[in-house]
Design brief:
Elements: H1 2-18, E1 83-89, H2 98-105, E2 114-120, H3 123-132, E3 137-140, H4 144-151, E4 157-161, E5 163-164, E6 172-176, E7 192-195, H5 204-212, E8 222-225, H6 228-237, E9 242-245, E10 259-264, E11 273-276, H7 278-283, H8 285-302, H9 311-321, H10 325-329, E12 335-336, H11 344-354, H12 372-378
Helix pairs in contact: 1-3, 2-8, 8-12
Length: 383
């Protein structure tokens, strides 16, 4: 019976992800099926160099300084035996993969006795494998697919953040304007909107924030899902009235007559990062903590500030990512941040439910977020 139930749930999840994680429920799909983050079972010890390695998750100030430890901390605590883990990401060349890829290249994970295999895979496919324990971690975000998996009773959690945008960055919503029209005068109700992703993506949260300031809701906008080149072309040739532009694409519209920047990712609030499945959440929590230590140590050593101020490091990073140094240099450094703010998953689910890609009710945060791994890695002993 239990085997049949699990097989049925897996089939439902597979169907959901094949449909880009749109709303998909079975007769036993409800919020009660999701698993809460466990209480810390082992004593957390203070970690030298990480006295400022934690901030209150409820601090939503846009000027909040991200948590930081001293360079080369937290110190490695190698696992007793060499352990291989499999991590997937939708792309391997994006700048936000920098800490993960450089950490592997610099041997930070090896210091923990971890052998990290990094694979490229669409998140809509990877979330199924993560939920079933066929991969260990997924670099993604708390997107609709993850929420639907949790609703089906699969143990998947967002365990640490990735970055927020530099105040100088203009990744976000751009719109066409008429001569003399200001950004404040833009009305997006009924607008055609181009994006790389659809309504299942976490990016709908910051998009909704912008729409709300311009007389529109998510349901008032006609979304067009295009590739990166297509998004920019559609905005330029009039195929859409607005678009979400990524680094460094927005640079070609900056200071260009007829285009305005309306807003992007909330300052000081990561909306993506690393997801763990049952292998690290349940079976091998010490491996999950070791992975967190290595990633956080990489951030503190190489990505703590304006890392692109050093041309030699920018070149090294471009080489590791398989990117071009001129592309990295064209836009500001990311504000790396391993922590997760309170309320992010609540706001994301609101958009998913309105977009009809997740069914109500929304899950509580403890069903989707587990901060215990990064808290233990930096030695935070409080709540």
């Amino acid at each position: 019976m239990a085997r049949r139930r699990r097989a049925g749930m897996a089939s439902v999840l597979l169907a959901c992800t094949a449909l880009l994680a749109t709303s998909c429920v079975s007769s036993d799909d409800n919020a009660e099926g999701a698993k809460s983050a466990p209480s810390q079972t082992t004593p957390v010890q203070a970690v030298a160099g990480c006295e400022k390695g934690w901030t209150d998750p409820s601090d939503l100030s846009p000027t909040r300084a991200p948590a930081r430890c001293a360079p080369n901390t937290p110190a490695a605590k190698p696992l007793a035996a060499k352990t291989k883990i499999v991590v997937t990401a939708g792309t391997l060349s994006a700048e936000y993969l920098g800490p993960l890829r450089l950490g592997i290249a610099k041997g930070e994970f090896a210091k923990e006795n971890l052998d990290v295999e990094l694979k490229q895979m669409p998140s809509t496919d990877a979330i199924t494998l993560l939920a079933k324990g066929e991969i260990d971690a997924l670099y993604s975000a708390p997107e609709a697919g993850m929420v639907n998996a949790a609703k089906q009773g699969f143990n998947v959690k967002w365990v640490f953040g990735n970055y927020s945008s530099d105040p100088k960055s203009k990744t976000g919503v751009w719109a066409k304007v008429k001569e003399g029209q200001t950004a404040e005068q833009v009305d997006l109700k009924g607008a055609r909107f181009a994006s790389l992703v659809g309504k299942t993506s976490i990016i709908m949260y910051p998009i909704e924030r912008v729409l709300s300031k311009h007389n529109a809701k998510v349901t008032d906008v006609d979304f067009k899902q295009l590739d990166a080149q297509g998004v920019a072309q559609a905005l330029e040739n009039g195929g859409v009235e607005a678009a979400w532009l990524l680094d460094p694409v927005w640079k070609q519209f900056e200071n260009k007559p007829g285009y305005v920047f309306l807003g992007g990712q909330p300052a000081g609030e990561p909306i993506g990062g690393m997801l763990y499945g049952p292998n690290l959440l349940e079976k091998n929590r010490e491996v999950g903590t070791a992975f967190a230590r290595a990633l956080i140590r990489t951030v503190n050593t190489y990505f703590a500030g304006d890392y692109k101020a050093d041309p030699a490091f920018t070149q090294e990073l471009a080489t590791v990512l398989g990117s071009k140094v001129e592309l990295l240099s064209a836009v500001p450094s990311l504000v790396t941040d391993w922590e997760i703010r309170t309320g992010t998953t609540d706001k994301a689910q609101k958009m998913f439910i309105e977009g009809k890609v997740v069914e109500a009710p929304a899950l509580t945060e403890d069903k989707l977020v587990d901060r215990s791994f990064y808290s233990e890695a930096v030695g935070h002993t409080g709540k």
